[in-house]
Design goal:
It is a single chain. With 283 residues, the protein is α/β, with parallel strands linked by helices. It has one domain: Divalent-metal-dependent TIM barrel enzymes (TIM Barrel, Alpha-Beta Barrel), CATH 3.20.20. The chain is built from nine helices and ten strands. It has an eight-stranded parallel β-barrel, surrounded by six helices. The C terminus is likely disordered.
């Protein structure tokens, strides 16, 4: 199984939210982080919109990733056929073999299952002809059994799931339920660690991020269940670091969490480096 980083591992450094750093991380800077952490995969997601890059910037990204031995995956939001075709084209320009998408756009609800199935079927031939995988990320408010039914209805080996267990909290599902529903369909795994803590006034709970291996996720069990289901997905870390006094301290915290998270995951038995392992099935 191949381990890497998502652009969502460094949201503050990228400048996704205010306050922004004086010099935001570039897409080449994200590849440099992968080199620094000793991983061979980078998923560039919707917080670093690839469709905003010029042709020359995309070419530089592709050439640099090849030079450094880093595989790329493309991430976006949206399920409309024209949008998926646009990001399929970007994936082909980058020699990326996976497009991950969140079905819902910011500020909008997730589309109904029938809409998702119809949209994906419209572009299925485009993905099949180019042998690029389409991984739909589970997120609230749709429950994981509905995501599983969507993939089953489409019934194509190139269409599957990006599993993120932190995203099930909004739908009030248990990890075991979500994994049972989605493990057989996982093409890509987001490893985003979290804790649930009670507020100081004892009224309510908060979901907060933390380095992988220090929270509730139990990555060893999670990955083991996915492998047991016959899958060997790619896996990337994401993070929910809190703003910490200044943007400089917050970016430093992101870097510390990334290093700690990758070191923990490398201590597990599941990961190997070669790009040719991406998305393979263990059956």
């Amino acid at each position: 199984m191949q381990l890497g980083i998502s652009s969502w591992a460094f949201p503050w450094a990228i400048g996704w939210a205010d306050p922004k750093p004086a010099v935001p991380m570039t897409v080449i800077g994200l590849l440099e982080k992968a080199k620094e952490l000793g991983v061979s995969l980078v998923q560039i997601a919707d917080n670093f919109p690839l469709d905003a890059l010029s042709k020359s910037e995309l070419l530089e990204l592709k050439q640099t990733s090849k030079q450094w031995g880093i595989c790329l995956e493309v991430g976006t939001r949206g399920i409309e056929p024209s949008h998926l075709r646009k990001f399929l084209k970007i994936a082909l320009e980058l020699d990326a073999d996976l497009v991950r998408t969140l079905p819902g756009m910011p500020g909008k609800f997730c589309p109904e299952k029938s809409v998702m199935v119809s949209s994906i079927r419209e572009v299925l031939k485009d993905f099949a002809d180019t042998n690029v995988k389409l991984a739909i990320e589970n997120h609230e408010p749709m429950r994981t059994d509905e995501f599983a039914m969507t993939v089953k209805e489409i019934d194509h080996p190139l269409v599957g799931i990006t599993l993120d267990l932190a995203n099930i909290i909004g739908a009030l599902e248990s990890p075991r339920e979500a994994v049972a529903n989605l493990a057989p369909h996982v093409l890509n795994l987001h490893i985003k660690e979290f804790k649930i803590v009670r507020g100081s006034g004892l009224m309510g709970l908060s979901v907060v991020g933390c380095p992988v291996g220090t929270g509730l996720l139990n990555p060893d069990w999670l990955i083991g269940q996915i492998v047991k289901a016959g899958r060997k997905p790619t896996a990337v870390i994401e993070a929910w670091p809190p703003f910490t006094e200044t943007i400089e301290k917050t970016v430093a915290l992101e870097n510390e969490w990334a290093g700690q998270s990758i070191a923990y995951l490398k201590s597990l038995k599941w990961f190997s480096k070669p790009c040719e392992l991406v998305g393979e099935n263990t059956n």
